[in-house]
Amino acid sequence: MDIFSLADKVAVVTGACGLLGREHCKALAEAGAIVVVADLDEAAAERISTGLGTGHLAIGMDVTDRGSLMAARRRILDAYGRLDVLVNNAAINDMFESPLLASEQSMFENYPLDLWDRSWKVNVSGVFLCSQILGGVMAERGKGSIINIASTYGIVAPDQTIYRNVDGKQTFYKSPAYPVTKSAVIGFTRFLAAYWGKRNVRVNALSPGGVENSQEEWFKDNYAAKTPIGRMAMPSDYRGAIVYLASDASAYMTGANLIVDGGWTAI
Q1: How far is CA 253 from CA 33, 100, 239, 248, 257, in A?
Q2: Per-residue pLDDT tens over the stretch 70-129
Q3: Which residues, other chains included, contact 105 with Cβ-Cβ below 8 Å and sequence gap of 6+?
Q4: Distance of CA 126 to CAs 26, 79, 88, Å?
Q5: Does pTM surpass 0.85?
Q6: pLDDT of res. 75
Q7: Helix axes of 177-195 and 113-120: crossing angle, nearest 10 degrees
Q8: Distant-in-sequence, close-in-space partners of 203: CB < 8 Å, separation ≥ 6
Q9: pLDDT by residue (tens digit) across 116-136?
Q10: Cα torsion at 30, 60, 95, 189 (round to 10°)?
């Protein structure tokens, strides 16, 4: 199974302290990679890096700031001399301060432009900048793998009914920013795969389904009812996909969107 090995490869994970970011780091490290744990919160990144074992690196990094990314690139190259894998995982998903007002605030008719702009800056421009600055290292070297984390909501529209509680009350609407930005990530993946193909940099997207994270039982039941496997994903369910896309096991795969969603988009 050597084609799945990431021994001695240097892999950067952005948004590494998030629910899935932590799992991506663990999966890559377990496959043998040297992991650069990159997140706005450098102290939290340091804790995760320490938990992975020796030889890994924590970096405080803002994916929307060119200067921050250039500094991170210098640190990575000074430490390891190369970069082999980039997981563009950093993203924001709308959270509303008041649960009582979330339904009204999340409606498209009321959705504020500043939240739209913030999501676009992180979820799309952040992927663009990280690919340009960190992925550029791989393009210059002539080898590498970029994995852009998209979403099932980048493929199909949100089903607003799953946000209705047992009393039939619409507690929340999935607002437009996340689906639109994740759709853009898939489009960008195709562009970059074609652009850097001759430089042997593979660019693929991973579209995960909904992940269990202490949601209300009624929501988990609503979600599970629409999924052939009959449950939400566990955070660890994407480890195999990340290793596959990062490794030589997917050597002839580029410009693709790997959907791992328990069958959500199949029906």
Answers
A1: 20, 45, 18, 10, 10
A2: 999 999 999 999 999 999 999 999 877 567 678 888 999 999 999 999 999 999 999 999
A3: 96, 98, 111, 112
A4: 23, 23, 8
A5: yes
A6: 98
A7: 30
A8: 131, 135, 145, 146, 148, 189, 192, 193, 196, 254, 255
A9: 999 999 999 999 999 999 999
A10: -60
Cβ contacts of 43 within 8 Å, gap of 6 or more: none
The per-residue pLDDT for 117 is 97
Distance between CA atoms of 263 and 257, rounded to whole angstroms? Answer: 14
Using DSSP's 3-state secondary structure scheme, residue 262 falls into: coil
Smallest CA-to-CA distance from 258 within 162, 149, 106 is with 149
Query: Which pLDDT score, from 0 to 100, does residue 79 have?
Result: 98
Closest by Cα among 34, 33, 11, 13 to 23:
13
Count of alpha carbons within 13 angstroms of residue 160, beta-carbon side? 12
Helices (H), the chain: 19-30, 42-52, 66-80, 102-106, 113-120, 126-133, 135-141, 177-195, 217-225, 239-246
CB 225 within 8 A of CB 267: no
- Per-residue confidence at 168, pLDDT binned at 50, 70, 90? very high
- Measured distance CA(32)–CA(30) in Å, rounded: 5
Kindly list the catalytic residues: 178
Domains and CATH numbers, the chain: 2-266 (3.40.50.720)
